[in-house]
Design brief:
Elements lengths: L1 H4 L4 H21 L4 H15 L9
Helix pairs in contact: 2-3
Amino acid sequence: MVAVGGLGSIGGSFVAASLLGISDMAGKYYFPELGAFLIYFVMVALLMWRPVGLFGRR
């Protein structure tokens, strides 16, 4: 959660935990056969889009 949210950002960790938790539950509900992998896809996509995290400083 800290890596996705951004180092040194408590709010970023909270947003990342919420986003990944919701995407995990939604993935398991809508795509049961792929639900376990969806959380990793979301995490990799976020880190490719924002390498320093959601609220990380450059």
